[in-house]
Amino acid sequence: MVLPAIGLMAGTWVLCWSFSVAATRPPGDLEFTLFWLGEFIGVVPIAVRLTLANISRAERIALLSAAGLFAFIPMFLRNPSAPQFFDALIHWHQAQVITRVGHPFVSNSLTPIIKNYPGLEELTASLRNLTGLSTFEIGTAFLWLLHVLSLIGIFVLIELITKSSRAAGLAALFYSINPAFMFFDSQFAYESLAIVFAIWVLVCVAGMQTSIASPHQRRTWFVLASIVGASCIVTHHITTYALITALLAVSIVTLSFRGHDVDAARRSRLTLSFTALLISGAVAWLVFVAPGTIAYLSPHIAPDTRDLLSVISHKVAAPTYFTSNAAPRYEQIAAVATIALLILLAALAFKSIKGLRTLSPILIGLVAFGMLYFLSVPILLTSQGEAAIRSWGDTYIGLAALIATLAYFVLPRFDRNRRGRVGATVLISSILVVVMVGNVHVQASVAYRFPGPYVYGSDTRSLTPELIATADWLRSTAGPDKNIVADRDTGIAIGTYGDESVAFASPGFPVWDLYFSTGLPPMRLIRELRSSGYHYLVVETEMYRLLPQVEFYFSTEEPEYGSRTKPPPRAALAKFSNLPWLTEIFSTQHYRIYRMDFSQLSACPTKPLLAASLLPGCRSSG
Amino acid sequence: MIVDRRTVIVLLIGGALLTGGAFVPVPIVRALMVLLPALMLPGAALLFGLGAIRGRWDPAPTLALCVITSLAFYPLGALLIYVVRLRLTTVSVVVEVDALLALMLAISLTGRKREQTVAPLIAVQVTDNVDGRRWGGWLVAVAAACAGVLILGLLILPKTTPAPYTEFYFTGSMAKINGTVSVAPGAQLVIPIAVRSRAGAETDFFIRANLDGSEFASDLISVPKSGTWKGSLKGTIDQLGCLHQLVINLVNPERSSTVSSLDLWIQETRTGCSGVTATSVPSGTTP
Where are the alpha helices (DSSP H) in A132-188? Predict the structure, then answer.
């Protein structure tokens, strides 16, 4: 009771210290050392307690709730007063707009797909309307809560299946170290909410399948699963599809293992009915409300096989998930070791299972779903590696079931003597530490994890007070909802803090031509900008000095994405100051705002400072 | 039956707190009154209506289920509000929660006669009798202590100092300029500008304006610490030609380096200079 409490408090303090070091000193190893020290001080005593056989179920739930709260601390320290992550900013702004206009389907220029999945924003707007708190306060409060709810959800799910609170506790703790839990699913974004809905839908399905449940209880679980499942559908696409995949696995196993037991057949029918209902709901939403989802997801879902072959044949370098120079070497080693460890644990779990038919069908289905983790690992070597990592937030539910199976069968063997108990505790804590370090390293870049000096094109560290002031000035001067041309780095602030509609760059609307080229942009683009009412252009001068950390300036569809070795030429920046159709109306050290007036395209200055090719009016006049 | 009545009373109190609290004008009081009922009430009403919290229910998982059901209710409720063509406002959200509460109470009261012996969805376990309260208290105490440590850490540990910067911009109608400024020959041009400094000390700047490369106007200004200087540049256009470029540089006098700059295209309105459409603010006026 005392040790975990002291560990959590001391861990909180050391985490605060690590973020302070990262914010105030030049980048080094100290912030990483303190970060991991804080995490271990907080989490390891909880792991030790949860490993023990003779502690109460209530203690396990309390420890898991504390672990859930503790896991949110790094994210809170990263953004204590305002959202900073790219997705969080967009959802925060979308929630603000939905609260203001009072209806859910509002266009978003930065990520158009979120218009069709308004669950998170509707929830936030409803709570804002009731409590009067700000979007950020509401978001922070329920993200703390979602962390606790997800771990209790995994605990209840596994306990319903295995009837072992010990296995359930360890499975939930294991889930809390999944790659997304500490940062990605801690941000104010639709997935953070949907994943918790998905976990609780599985809890409801497990409740339906419990053999001791009465018909009334099964109906109740069914109704609750339908409500939570419907909210999952309107909140996030990928999580809904992952949930459907998990339910299909469970349904197939349930159907195969039902035998001649009448009750089992009834349970199987209920599970199948619910899966069919969820699929129908998801398909209906996709067809009637969110048809753009397919076009949005297809480039991410279909990983380029040629990418994989190119990496294997050493034609191109693998992405840097395991070799980031900014993080300490031990993190990189842990990232690789995590995958090896999980393969080992999976093998051990399968070896320890005595007869598949002794297990609950839902457990087998979930474990099968968890095996998708291993299928996704090779995708890390392709350009779609990030999509694979994002899927781990879902597949870790299945891996948690796998860990529960292992704990259920193997841990009692260690309970026979003190040496065994100590050995089990040390082993579990060591595995936990390695997997936690490896997973955080793979998912969150250093610029996402820690505050620190400006990093161009890093989303978090390029969102400076200077950029926010630029966005504020534009909103106060031009008014909100104006069409603005900006790169991704400035666009995120202009589109959220500035409340403007930012041009969505694509091969069909290549606004990057304005920025990259030393010549005039194609007339087709100019005509489109003119007819669509774009009057402002925002430029970040650092674009011409630095390469963006995210490897693109506008979108992954831009020329030279991922292969660019030097920034666009400075002459491309210089031209803005001397074109008669651009007037520089605002500037700071790093940002400039130009007013575009396309009626001046053919104007010729008295003293032209640009080549005649850039000043068509000068060509015709002389 | 006693537990049922108690639950009904708790639900009604929650409903009253939410309904009344949502319209309290004092923000902190409103948040304190409403946050907990908002997170619990829709889920609790649903679970009660479905007969899931009768008898001796397991507190932690049932409360978690209650909150998750509430969180799931709001997006669906908001969609319903949208479908019936209402706006999502405090009134509509309060009505939606109250309607759900009333519906669930009605279902529960009518359904109770039929199913008197319904067990809770997640029943309390024998081992949890005393331990539950003890560990619940432990969790609250640890969460509060960690929150204290967190606040202390944020308050006393060194924080990053944002890099200073300077905003330089047109003001008034010149900030909303579209295209060139039309100027009659010999008329005085007044250009309102501002400098906002985000530095920790008072800063001096030179403002140097060049028209087609020749000096147009200059000024030495002092911008207060984290403050704004507002003023204007004045001058007459006496160069040859029709379309002139005015470049206004903000210069750091110590380093003689340009901090930032603005520019303006000026169209003379004299005879022979009408080749290009000029949509502009009137010249010679201070916006």
Answer: 135-162, 165-175
Mutate to test the interface with A, among B66, B263, B281 (most CBs of A within 10 A): B263
CB pair distance less than 8 Å for A24 and B159: yes
d(CA B247, CA B236) in angstroms, rounded, equals 14
- CB contact, 8 Å: A12 with chain B? yes
Residues β-bridged to residue B207: B219, B250
Put simply, the answer to whether B276 touches A599 (Cβ < 8 Å) is yes
Of the candidates A283, A103, A55, A86, the one whose C-alpha atom is nearest the C-alpha of residue A187 is A86
* Residues with Cβ within 8 Å of residue A245, at least 6 apart in sequence: A369, A372
Mark yes or no for CB contact A607/B75 under 8 Å. Answer: no
Test A56 with B128 for CB contact under 8 angstroms. Answer: yes
- pLDDT at residue B283 greater than cutoff 70: no
Tens digits of residue pLDDT in A177-226: 999 999 999 999 999 999 999 999 999 999 988 766 688 888 899 999 99
- Residue A308 predicted with pLDDT over 90: no
Best residue in B32, B57, B58, B146 to probe A by mutation, most A CBs within 10 Å? B146
Best of A205, A585, A592, A596 to disrupt the B interface by mutation (most B CBs within 10 Å)? A585
Share of chain A above pLDDT 70, in %: 93
Alpha-carbon distance A455 to A452, whole Å? 8
**Mean pLDDT score of chain A:** 90
Residue B223: half-sphere exposure toward Cβ, Cα within 13 Å: 28
B257/A64: higher pLDDT: A64
Chain B CB contacts of A585 under 8 Å are: 169-170, 174-175, 177, 262
Nearest by CB: A585 against B165, B175, B242: B175
Tell me: pLDDT of A585 over 90.
yes
pTM for the model: 0.92
The DSSP secondary-structure symbol of A118 reads -
Give kind and range of the element (H or E) at residue A410: helix A385-414
Distance (Å, rounded) from C-alpha B151 to C-alpha A368? 43
**A228/B68 Cβ within 8 A:** yes
Q: What is the mean pLDDT of residues A451-457?
A: 91
The pair phi, psi for residue A483, each rounded to 5°, is -80, 120
- B146: nearest CB among A8, A103, A104: A8
Closest CA to A434 of A367, A342, A343: A342
pLDDT at position A381 over 90? no
Q: Which two tokens stand for residue A484?
A: 């603005």
Q: Which residues of A touch B153 (CB under 8 A)?
A: 12-13, 15-17, 20
Enter the tokens of residue B268. 């003379």
The 3-class SS string of B131-189 reads HHHHHHHHHHHHHHHHHHHHHHHHHHCCCCCCCCCEEEEECHHHHHCCCCEEECCCCEE
Residue A102 has pLDDT above 90, yes or no: yes
Beta bridge partners, B181, equal B266
Question: Among A43, A38, A33, which residue's Cα sits nearest to residue A15?
Answer: A38
Is 50 exceeded by the pLDDT of residue B2? no
- Per-residue CA distances from A189 to A195, A382, A386, A461, A586 (Å): 11, 25, 16, 19, 32
The per-residue pLDDT for A211 is: 62
Residue A203 host element (H or E)? helix A190-209
A196/B179 touch (CB, cutoff 8 Å), yes or no: no
Which residues from A are below 8 Å from B118, CB to CB? Answer: 214, 216
pLDDT band at B14 (very low <50, low <70, confident <90, very high): very high
In this structure, are residues A311 and A364 in contact, taking their beta carbons and an 8 Å threshold?
Answer: no
Contact B75, A119 (CB under 8 A): yes
pLDDT, tens digit (0-9, with 9 covering 90-100), for B106-134: 988 886 555 555 567 776 665 555 677 88
